[in-house]
Design a protein that fits this description.
The complex is a heterodimer of chains A (109) and B (113). With 109 residues, chain A is mostly beta strands. In chain A, strands 2, 4, 5, 9, 10 and 11 form a 6-stranded mixed beta sheet that branches. In chain A, strands 1-3-8-7-6 form a 5-stranded antiparallel beta sheet, with no helix packed on it. In chain A, a hairpin with a 5-residue loop joins strand 9 and strand 10. With 113 residues, chain B is mainly β. In chain B, strands 2, 4, 5, 6, 9, 10 and 11 form a 7-stranded mixed beta sheet that branches. In chain B, strands 1-3-8-7 form a 4-stranded antiparallel beta sheet, with no helix packed on it. The chains are: A mainly beta (109), B mainly beta (113). The interface between A and B is medium-sized, with 24 and 20 residues.
Chain lengths: 109, 113
């Protein structure tokens, strides 16, 4: 079966750095996405990785290792507004998105 | 402004009634999707459509139906056959080329009692 694993919940301090991990086992791989979702709202796109390595976009970076079936999202200089769920999703061989359950990130002052 | 609209934001229905959730996009995207989101679970695909007048079942299509008569519109009907219809429903659309990023509507929270 296809599976994506993420921690259920993480807590971090305002101004700090947090890394959210995602491991996946899918039938084929055509890219990995990270989305942010505030409670009761729609997911919004954060990043896309299809090749190994680090993609940096402002305070957010995403890393991919295809051989390890592993990705992480790195958030720097955390702000209270970063409190949200972070969803990892992998596009499989049929170009369908397989979604993880999401990681709820709680930021404390 | 381009985007996806879903209405209403909150919907309440009695058990045994069919209900239709609307989804409209003006992004000129060919592909559209319906997901269901339940607490503690990832998004689950109900139906998707890659072109007008064609759609495919997703992982949890039982108890749902869709139509795609226009490129801009992809309504979802939750029928009385759906055993647990109370959920947050999200509509999305995407382009047909890499990276195939999906854009989401604001969602409809359906409560059936």
């Amino acid at each position: 079966g296809q599976n994506i694993d993420q921690p259920t919940e993480m807590t971090a301090t305002e101004g700090a750095i947090v890394q959210i991990n995602c491991t996946y086992q899918t039938s084929g791989f055509n890219g990995l996405f990270w989305y942010q979702q505030h409670a009761g709202e729609a997911p919004t796109f954060l990043s896309y990785n299809v090749l190994d390595g680090l993609e940096e976009k402002g305070r957010f970076s995403s890393f991919l290792s295809r051989s390890k079936g592993y990705s992480y999202l790195l958030l720097k200089e955390l702000q209270m507004k970063d409190s949200a769920s972070y969803l990892c999703a992998v596009k499989d061989s049929n170009y369908q998105l397989i979604w993880g359950a999401g990681t709820k990130l709680i930021i404390k002052p | 402004d381009g985007g996806i609209t879903q209405s209403p934001k909150y919907l309440f229905r009695k058990e045994g009634q069919n209900v239709t959730l609307s989804c409209e996009q003006n992004l000129n995207h060919d592909a559209m999707y319906w997901y269901r989101q339940d607490p503690g679970q990832g998004l689950r695909l109900i139906y998707y459509s890659q072109i007008v007048n064609d759609f495919q079942k997703g992982d949890i299509a039982e108890g749902y139906s869709v139509s795609r008569e226009k490129k801009e519109s992809f309504p979802l009907t939750v029928t009385s056959a759906q055993k647990n219809p109370t959920a947050f429903y999200l509509c999305a659309s995407s382009e047909q080329h890499s990276p195939y990023e999906q854009y989401f509507g604001p969602g409809t929270r359906l409560t059936v009692t």
